[in-house]
Structure prediction request, 293 residues.
Amino acid sequence: MTSTELTAADASVFIPNPATPYQGDIARYWDGEARPVNLRLGDVDGLYHHHYGIGEVDHAALGDANDSESEKKLITELHRLESAQAELLLEHLGDIGRDDTLVDAGCGRGGSMVMAHQRFGCKVEGVTLSAKQAEFANRRAGELHIQDHVRARVCNMLSTPFETGQAAASWNNESSMYVDLHDLFAEHSRILKVGGRYVTITGCWNPRYGQPSKWVSQINAHFECNIHSRREYLRAMADNRLVPQAVIDLTPDTLPYWELRATSSLVTGIEEAFINSYRDGSFQYVLIAADRV
Ligand SMILES: C[S@@+](CC[C@H](N)C(=O)[O-])C[C@H]1O[C@@H](n2cnc3c(N)ncnc32)[C@H](O)[C@@H]1O
Ligand SMILES: CC(C)=CCC/C(C)=C/COP(=O)(O)OP(=O)(O)O
Ligand SMILES: [Mg+2]
Prediction:
């Protein structure tokens, strides 16, 4: 069976040969991931994200630190900021109709896919290396009765089963640091229709700093990823008919999320690296929206 023959039901049991040993490691990493910071935030409203938050903290919603509900309120607030991040990405996809197909490259547990379907009413196809994540995303889609519109598959985002020009828009939400950017944008460029939109939200190292800082190296080691520079994104897009329409530095918008998260009981130990690298300018959180020309 090839990955193109997958259906939602069999996505969980089909384990393809990874394209590289590295991809095998990443599949295992996400199959085994069960950090409370992700599960407990997702439990707030059933949207499970593996990305970070943006926007001002609503201190009134947090209430008093001695409040017996304070931890629950903190979790709800962190989750609100993560969903706000996904809303911003979706806003940049442009005019999407009900008959369009969107592609989420590196879809995780599918939170952004559900939000995209709820916003546009369209089909959303996601790919992840992790069978556990695909199974989770498809189970959520089933529970929401949107399984005919939202589907996750176990598949390499560099070689997808989608037809050339099939997608009205596609995105990477914090998933592009696992792949070579030229290979990635060549595949997005292939599956996007001419005039389609590509959006990424990503962390990238800042060429103005010089080289990846020790904090960036720490983030790479923590997640087994390979953070690219801002320059690499723009160069690889230009080489693949993706022309930036907006480049937004979200660094000041994501710092409040990290400062709040650092005070929670759900810390994972990576908070300091994000906060320090955003503050010293070596690392940036950016949204890039590009037109497929
Ligand atoms: C940090 S998570 C982001 C998940 C999701 N985009 C979100 O915002 O919740 C990274 C995701 O990228 C996926 N990924 C990494 N490399 C991949 C590849 N080559 N092909 C498909 N998915 C990949 C992982 O399986 C994981 O689902
Ligand atoms: C911006 C960068 C560099 C992101 C790296 C990719 C990544 C692991 C994102 C968050 O996943 P997660 O939600 O599973 O992480 P955590 O458990 O820290 O919340
Ligand atoms: Mg998380």
Notes: The pocket of geranyl diphosphate (ligand 2) is lined by residues 35, 37-38, 50-51, 174, 177, 203, 219, 223, 225, 227, 268, 270 (CB under 6 Å).
